[in-house]
Amino acid sequence: MTVRPFRLLPCVLALTALAGLNGCGKTLGGYPNHAVTPSLVGPGNSARDDRTVYMDLIRTMQQQGAYYASLAHIDAYRQRFGDTPELRRLQADALRQTGQLDAARTLYRGLLSGGDAAAAWHGLGLVDAQQGNTAAAEQALQKATTLEPVNANYLSDLGYARLNAGQLDAAKDPLAMAAELDPTNPKVIANLALWALLSGDSSRADAIMQRGELSDTSRASVRRLATQLALRKPLSAIPASGGKPSATAASTNVTRPSDVPASMLQRFTSDATPYEARP
Which pTM was predicted? Predict the structure, then answer.
């Protein structure tokens, strides 16, 4: 008889240190059965250890997209251990991801004067973007990148906000910075490829997505989004041919491939062989 290897569920991995946690044996979508209230104090564990492990569980839930479940556990954590700025930030993130934008905005604003100010400005920028306030979104994301200038996600989101507003020139630098800081991040690579498509260089966009190893589904999504964004812009601002910008386009504020920093041109060269284009 073949014995299959035992595979630990996410809740087991996250909560091994909590020997007293109830309900981990019965899972719901890979997480503990939320109908069972966990016992956070296990034998031999201090309250500080339990707080750390429980916060790790909440972070893991959000990383895996279980935002509603994380909200329930945030309430449970707060009842047992009290409130912290990080807990409020995680709650704001979950509220934003579940469409509760006004409540998320209130929490983010309360964090603007503390150590989570950069994350709070970033969150406010995403809230504004979801509500269609493109100018406010760009301003908030700019403040986030000013506070954390090497955060690739913040830079990439700032670049995308500018792309969404039709500011191709202004989008170039944060997108290029993000790609150099985190060249294996799929979202960062997708946004840079989106910039190339909107700039009229589809071959460079293909090279960027190839080197970033984006899936076929992701590549199709980038192209579809580029089409949607292009339709919002004046026809003179987007090359119709899909190749190099025309003279009409060049007379506007369209950024051309030659304006990309040299290091990015070398890294994402469009005439590279498939082998050279790999990370």
Answer: 0.69
